[in-house]
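User: Can you help me understand a structure? I only have the sequence.
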Amino acid sequence: MKISCFAISCPGKDSVINQDRFLCFKEISDKILLWEDGFFSLRTQEYIRYGYLFAIADGLGGHNAGEVASNQAIRLLWKRYYSGHPDPSPDILDRLREIFRQAHEEIRILSRSKFEYRGMGTTLTAAILKEETLYWAHIGDSRLYRINDSQGIQQLTEDHTLIARGIREGFLNQEDITKNHKGELYQAIAVSPQLEVQVGQQRLSPPEWILLCSDGLTDVLDEWTMEELFRGQILKEEERRVSSNLQANVLISMSPKEACERLVRAADKMGREDDVTIVAIKIE
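Assistant: Let's start by predicting it. Here is the structure, written out as tokens:
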């Protein structure tokens, strides 16, 4: 299984501070390091033991110090996952649950340490690729998608908003999202009274893509548009002229960097206002 990846994070139209943070593997090195921008390196032994970890955290808009909460969540997740158990394979999901709960409690404590931190919180969505299996853990309304030829685009996570829950439980319909926006989050790191972490795993079947994104993307792009973009159906005219031999299905022909940039351009074209963060992982 060959993996390549890229991540991008862009502030919103009127954002003073980008409250999104991400984790994205960059390279195999002789050191295990996490850079300030969210990219990290692994030694060969960590990659073999733990696999690749990717994540997105979106500090809650309108809450104090959302960027502090999202940054803390990302750094705690990275540090706790790549330390401790010599081989986490038998209990990866349990380990992720525990790390999420630790982040929840530690950021809650931090939020009480300064007046300006009170009420801060964040979403957190993590994905691990190890031995051709995808594992994930999730809280909030950032999303994890799987995209392949056989099943198209699949949202693997649930949105933890009141509107989305109402639709899942049959009390509301899809039109209510348009009428009332998304509704408030009922699950978020450091905010919810009790944390119920959504976890799951699926066997991978290359070639395919894994996509993590904050709601700055999904607020303006629907799943059909995202899938069509990955299949090369939504390109600028100049891109079509350059790529005159482009086939309808280009799931593997574009790079993760190109995928991230095309998604951001499409979101901007649709009038994006919020921070947007994307982690794109190509699996061959």
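Now, to help you interpret it: The CA atoms of residues 103 and 274 lie 25 Å apart. The longest helix spans residues 92-111. Let me know which part you'd like to focus on.
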